[in-house]
Amino acid sequence: MPMAWTFRFLEEIALADIAFEAEGESLEEVFRGATQALLECMANPAKVSGEWERAIERTDVDPSALLFDWLSDVVYWKDAAGVVFREAPLTVTREGDLWLLQACLIGAPVDQQTQELHADVKGVTKHLYELKQTGGCWKVRVVLDV
Amino acid sequence: MNLNTDMTVNRITDEIWEIPMSEKPGMLVPARIYATEGILQAMDSGVFDQVTNVACLPGIRRYALCMPDGHWGYGFPIGGVAAFDVQDGVISPGGVGYDINCGMRLIRTDLTLADVQPYLEKLMTELFRKVPAGVGASGFVRLSREDFGRVMTHGAKWCVERGYGWHRDLVRMEEGGCIEGADPSIVTDHALQRGINQLGTLGSGNHYLEVQVVSNERIFDPVTAAALGITGHEQIVVMVHCGSRGFGHQVASDYLKVFEKAMRRYGITVKDQQLACAPFRSPEGQDYFSAMNCAANTAFANRQVITHQIREAFATVFGRSAEALGMELVYDVAHNIAKVERYAEGELVVHRKGATRAFGPGSPELPETFRQTGQPVICGGSMETGSYLLVGTDQAVRDTFGSTMHGAGRTMSRAQAKRTVRGEQLQLQMKKRGIVVKAVSMSGLAEEAGLAYKNISEVVESVARAGIIRKVLELRPIGNIKG
User: Fold this and answer.
1) Segments in B433-481 forming alpha helices (H)
2) Distance (Å, rounded) from C-alpha B173 to C-alpha A85?
3) Which residue of B has its CA nearest to A39?
4) Which of A75, A130, B158, B311 is the most exposed place for a label (fewest CB within 10 A)?
């Protein structure tokens, strides 16, 4: 079964940094696509083991703010725990006026010998940041400061 | 003239270009770009759009400026300089950048290329071991929360008190490596947690540690060079480029959120979300200024701990103490910061984002050491080309709020650079040219290839001709460490 989300890196913007666009068939799927793009910016997830875990739960009335804050959480834990990530299974559900994100960050302490490390992402920016629904598809554009 | 903008850009001199206030609704001052015609033509459209957005911010004085290494940034362009009245003007994290007090440091040695060449591989390996770099790297200094608070308030002074450096280092840093008015109590726990383990780490991206050579023929002003401790004859120096790491980034992110809300309260509208700002005298503005100073001091401390490690690495490899090797600091200067400074208009909050303070010999703010030479300005080029040591001028104080360029400036995206060259291939090519490179990430190395940057010599020449710096010397890399 094909994945219900995709992402691609954008070259025409963010000359000195990293920009990507993620798409999903649902809000939850676009969260997954954007999360995967972010994890891959930092390290090759296939080469990261999974001995470190952190459950994260967030709510917001605005799904755009929810995604922004969640991606910022990922960057925060990278530095605060000194880890990179293998995966981040997540669900996004509606509870009344609120969107609820329940996620688990899974990864391992940084190890330059065994992992394939990429960029040290320092922040998720609001520059050109946009989450929108067009037809049956959700799309987000994210610029990361590296 | 072919420019990446439809705006009218008027030539003031061969190195100064002005976009009049009529070009965008809301501009309160004209925008000025320092560049040769060639550099101006190559500038991306974002520079023109962003520098004119900055010209719309409340309380801006005289001009919104962009230096020749300017390129697209967040809110402000990289290379952006803007000064706001302390009474009716604003402060904006977008005018400082995420990496608060990202800056440059230069350390001299008594060693020559002939001394170092036989041990270069060993030296770079030792430096790579001593100075952690790359994603998630943590430093050797273990800090309690109280210690980290002292780092925020005392900056490089804290390091020297702990034995990470020499007292005389402090006079050779902007603000003595310690900016007053830092209040750790208004820094979030998130910021603290991101930064507490990162003291003494280089980071990644365009941050680096470089071993360089000064040849006699590349010294343009031998008297000033000698006054700064550099005499040439293939002399070895070490350059460091890094900032406040995750801590500064979190401070910037935290206050962008605060300012988004504050702007509604103060009735401020901006052309770009990343220009979120607050009146400088407002509680939010003062809190950010204080938190920014915490991050700025942490960056001074970060570069000081790295200096300590560099001195130890050299001492290990060459079997003599760092003092015996003459490893004195030349200077440490910020290029992402906001500071209150006095100009003809009165007290102004000068934002420099990818721009360096460049005070001339006449500036009373300079310590005695630099009253004859002017303040040293360290400009890093790409790891394949060269870097420059310059000094500020009194004309810079008059024309550009005492500011100048900070580096070469990118011309190519990271993805395009990676497609053009592979990290392993670049490492090999550079080794053949006598430059030993140690990198945590090969893709990160490719992203920083020389072809991704402007020609730094042309960038330096344009600010020299504009009179806002004087050239002292050019430095050539022989070893580079990247995250």
Assistant:
1) 442-447, 456-465
2) 38
3) B135
4) A130
Domain ranges, residue B182: 10-411+453-482
Tally of domains in chain B:
1
Distances (CA, A) of B466 to B6, B35, B470: 25, 9, 10
Report field, pTM of the whole predicted structure over 0.90: yes
Half-sphere exposure of B398 (CA within 13 A, CB side): 8
Shortest distance between the Cα of B17 and any Cα of chain A, in A, equals 23
Summarised one tens digit per residue, pLDDT across range B153-204 is 999 999 999 999 999 999 999 999 999 999 999 999 999 999 999 999 999 8
Examine residue B420 and state whether it is found in any structural domain, yes or no.
no
Residues of A in contact with B483 (CB under 8 A): 120
Tell me the sheet residues that pair with B237: B108, B212
Query: CB of B287 within 8 A of CB of B186?
Result: yes
Residue B437 lies in a domain: no
For residue B219, what is the DSSP state?
B
B245-266 helix and B283-318 helix, angle to the nearest 10 degrees: 170
Other C-beta atoms closer than 10 Å to the C-beta of B114 total 10
- Whether B351 is a known active-site residue: answer no
- Tell me the CA distances in angstroms from A60 to A64, A130, B392, B419, one per residue in order: 9, 16, 49, 39
Query: CA torsion sign, B468 to B207 to B138 to A36?
Result: positive
* Distant-in-sequence, close-in-space partners of B123: CB < 8 Å, separation ≥ 6: B116, B211, B313, B314, B317, B479
Closest CA to B133 of B250, B240, B252: B240
B341-370 pLDDT, tens digit per residue, is 999 999 999 999 999 999 999 899 999 999
Q: Which residues pair with A137 in a beta bridge?
A: A134
Which among B415, B439, B417 is positioned nearest to B428, based on CA atoms? B439
Q: Give the pLDDT confidence of B258-285 residue by residue, as tens digits.
A: 999 999 999 999 999 899 999 999 999 9
Output the domain CATH number for residue B287: 3.90.1860.10
Is residue B34 within 8 A of residue B24, CB to CB? The reply is no
Which domains does chain A show, CATH number per domain?
5-145 (3.55.10.10)
Please name the member of B204, B252, B416 whose beta carbon is closest to the beta carbon of A123: B252
Token readout for B139 is 């430093």
| Inter-chain touch B245–A79, beta carbons under 8 Å | yes
Using DSSP, how many helices (H) and how many strands (E) does chain B show? 15, 19
Residue in chain A nearest B207 by alpha carbon: A146
State whether B74 and A76 contact (CB < 8 Å): no
